[in-house]
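Inputs:
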Amino acid sequence: MNLSFTENRKQKTENPNIRLRIFLTGVGGQGTLLASRVLGEAALEAGFSPLVSETHGMAQRGGIVVSSVVLGEVKSPIISPGEADVLLGFEALEAFRALNYCHARSLVIANTAAIAPYPVATGQAQYPPVDRLMELLGEHVGGLLAFDAGERARAAGSALAVNMVLLGALAGTASLPFSQEDLLHILRTRTNPKFLEANLHAFQAGVDAAQESCNWVRRPASWH
Amino acid sequence: MSELLTGQPGERRLFLGNEAIVRGALEAGVALVSTYPGTPASEIGDRCYEISRQTDLYFEYSVNEKVALEVAAGAAASGWRSLCSMKHVGLNVAADTLMTLAYVGVKAGMVIISADDPSLFSSQNEQDNRFYAKMSGLPMLEPASPQEAKEMTLAAFALSEELQVPVLLRTTTRINHTRGAVTLGQLAPHPGPGSFTKEPFRKVMVPAVARLAHARLLEAQAKAAALAEISVFNKIYGQGTWGIVTSGVSADYVEDAVAELGLKDRVQVLKLGFTHPLPVNLILKFLAPLEKVLVVEELEPFLEESLRGIAQAQGLTMPIQGKGQALFSRLYEYHPALVRRVTARYFGLSDNAPEPLEPAQILGQPLPDRPPNLCPGCPHRAMYYSVKMALKNLDVEGVFPTDIGCYTLGLLPPLSMADFLICMGSSINTAAGISKATDRKVVAFIGDSTFFHSGLPGLANAVHQGHDFLLVILDNGTTAMTGSQPHPGVTLTPPGYQGRPIPIAGVIRGLGVESLWTVNPFKFKETLAATKEALSARGVRVLISQAPCHLYEQRIKGKKRIARFCVTDKCHDCRHCLDYFGCPAMQLSGKPEGGRMLIDPDVCSGCAFCVQWCEAIRPLKK
């Protein structure tokens, strides 16, 4: 059963006309790099030649960590402002900050849970109300799925699995040129087996979140 | 087993540019790899360390880039293919070696990776190391993708062996840290023992030998130029009377811009991968029929100026432009839309892309920044706090030359413990100059890895000259910023690591320092007392702040947080913790005017430092 599935997956060929740019943003330690890598590996197995661009080094110490996954008819490894088709925001403020990477038809999946940046924690700056951030985000993009991914991750058994919840949500929107099963295959074969069970639960929680209409601040008119 | 050692030829893998370089070196039969870690090159060393424990590959984290380059040079002179990787500024440290190694040459292939960092993601400058190729006379290749990074590494070994000189592979952050599909080739076997042939009148660079060696280098350069003319890495595509010349990651942006602007029938693109020496005849053939030419390259006008020179020598007068107003900047990295916009403007086309949205404008207020910060439980913060308190107690204002590592983040408020930084090792020597020229109390900070990298000569100098400053060595037992690589002073080693540790205190005494204190920075009273004593003394004083990097200790020892702390009702809202310490776990809940301090239990590392100076902080009851 498993074997025949693998063979099927290998027979897929690259759709020559597609071009998809996914921008991921979050705070150091949230697992954005693993999420982008899983997307990249799944795309590779589906026959694409994806490019995954990562931030390493100094910014990882509590700062903003962004990464991107591009596939299809595109050679540039990074995404310019205004050109992300999908935005995965791992934290509410960072999702909003990355609005400049979106265009009018972008799909945004945002975690509404907030992580106070240091100036907010010390009272020098105010964290804007999350509801307001989501409302404004929704007004400027093609679709916005927003929910507390931290809560879903905790309920699934691992507070650290926000990245898996968001991946599941993205898979649940059916906006990728490969299947949910392709992503799950990568999780099963390429990620730490110690966390696999919690990760799979978190992924499913994300898939479910995408089906709950109350989480859609704005529904995309059509997708693709 | 390392994933870089597995897989069949022809198989496609998703590799980081850095991993593709390592795979290319393994397919070339590399026998020795040396490095000093530095972003964006660090993963090259880290993967090689892992591989060296599973194969016959010899790998070392050398003490600095000069040492690394010389170790690799010795191996290449002895018939082992060797690879030496470093970040761009590392090549400054190794530049003395590089310039004359070009004369000495190699026997087996030798590849030097220079990883440049346009936009300074994790660096102190954004110098363009392509000029090192020009200055040293060595051949240079520049990949535009992970696949090319692998192919070029393989080709660079062959080229180096053919020309008998090292070859530079120059990357930028976007190549090093991009994952892309890489097709595997065949891994090559280890070459077995090397051999060193005595040829002192070729290999010992005294003036009489070096005069001849310089001539040999020029001959090698001429051969390299001929090879550049036929290199598969220099490609022309498209047609028309406009031209674009580009290299590296910019070539990817150009390819997308040409497609998106629909220019395939109007513009010819010369994508250069073998960029020193340049293929002059190929360039002339390319330029001859063109009306105007745009040069797309990040940082300095390296290609642009060369192209103008080449065109001028042949009397070609078409405009060749790259940098300038309304064109490209010499600052920072480029991105696809920028290249498309400038390309459209240069050729008089319109780029209809809408202006990107502006989040702050949409919100109607600036977004709070999210600066990076030292981790909760970081020993550097604890030491900084004690120095701050000691200076406050003594009522003295200090000046703080600092150095390169995580602790450079001490720059940010509320710590504000960094006043002057140039490069690796500069803390000690600039402290000497500042203390000589002023009557200020100078406290220099340097990390343990940086101390071994380039602090030793400075400390010897300071002792010998009789300078007057306190040097605090922030010894967290590892090279934390780049991913916890070991160094000669390591106290906490990765599994299986064989390096013999050299205790820092012994080194310092050996260099003649008489006033030396060693503290555990998490013991506040002792640290404060020692710091006050050290501040009050004269001459060169050294205080070693010794406690392992919290993150690394967790990773290596599997150590878990044992206790956590909370703010009790005794808190009278003095905000001393926010004003002087700034641990990320400490937060002000509610509004700034009516807030209350709290410790986020999910962030608190349980280091138990704050509890020693704030009576309102107590262990969290379970």
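Strands of chain A lie at 19-27, 51-53, 64-72, 84-89, 102-111, 143-147, 216-218. Flag for discussion at group meeting.
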